[in-house]
Predict the 3D structure of the following.
Amino acid sequence: MNAPRHTSNDAANELTRRAFLGRGAMLVPALASGCATAPAAPAAAEAAPAGGARLPHFAPRAKRVLCLFQAGGLSHVDLFDDKATLHRFAGQELPPSVKGTQRVTGMTSGQSRFVVAPPIAAGRRCGASGLWLSDLLPHLQTVADELCLIKSLYSEAINHDPAITFMNTGNQLPGYASMGAWVSHALGSENPNLPAFLTMVSQGSGKNPGQPIFSRLWGSGFLPSSHQGVGLRPGANPVLYLANPDGVDRDRRRAMLDDLAALNGMAARASGDPEAAARTAAYEMAFRMQESVPELLDTGEESPAVLASYGPDVHRPGSYAANCLLARRLLERGVRFVQLFHRGWDQHIAIARQLPNQCRDVDQPTAAVLRDLRARGMLEDTLVIFATEFGRTVYSQGELGAPGSGRDHHGRCFTVWLAGGGVRRGFEYGATDDFCYNIAADPVHLRDLHATILHCLGLDHARLTYRFRGLDTKLTGVEPAYVVRDVLG
């Protein structure tokens, strides 16, 4: 077990770029005047995390996280939140009292009509809990009693990039630290041979190509770069630049790294730049990963029954199914935060064709990874998050029933679910109105979701801070955020 991590920098004299430039600015007039006395060092480094409390702050219910991110905005209306009213009003105008004056995207703002589009498939109440799930997710229906549905999530963002950035970093603007980076910074990894935070991206068979996925979604932002996510890719080189070049064997690589460590150590002592130490840590991690990654990717030890449970795509590298299996193997090996991004959920058009295909991609592997974690005794302390950046409108984009019709973005209310460590099983929280368009009970902002995720890991979102630009910056931002205690097990 790793020693507890701290929220303070390793050395009090570590300097950020801003602090270095500030010291340089003070030196210029001093040198010009012939003064040989250096100015006093700035008070604490501006990027230093506040506090210094031992982490976790309290006993965690979850030790690790698996985030299954459905990129593009999946339709809560079709998959999780059917209402009888949608069928009674099918093809009729969405009542103005429901639609209100809220902002909609430019893709539907010019429509002359906003007609109600009921779910494209039937669904049913599932398990002992009676949670309603679409028949497009037949495998997930069989594990409904593991799920904790949050049906009243909301976000101010209604366009993809700010919305997906908001969900993953707590801010709509680029440059902030991702969820996984915060968790890595707070808790570190339980395996010295693998990073604390790993990510994988797959392309769905719904909308192809899907919305772009940028590496800043798993970036470290202002946190030390050692906490950024490491991307695993399919194929012979799962981690870029990990393999030794031709003519360089492992002994020679070791000698090179020793020399680099000495040089970076000199640079760190001379400048106080924490990134010098981060570079050394990254090189050393890459060296260890040269042996740990090939073992991770060798799924030959998996039983035929386990492989079959993930579906036929498990044998196709880079598929969502293959990534789900690798995610379980990473979690087994002590990786703290594993995040999968599955593209293709942006059903503006052809929803009747695209959405069933997209659901087939994820249905069986998602159910399988939940069962697999449960069978291995890991689900009790693994928090599984099935999330997206926003939902879809209940009204049709385009002519209702036309082959090219779909649904627009809808951030005012949508559904995500949690499972495993720290949350209630077979539970539903929050409610939308009769048209799945507004929140009727128990609103949950994205900040509240982030606070709840951190709470499950034993982290107090208000105390997990990092000094940046004069602020004690948090994943949950500067506005109020609340743990959703009713979903906790």
In short: Residues 351-375 form the longest helix (25 residues).
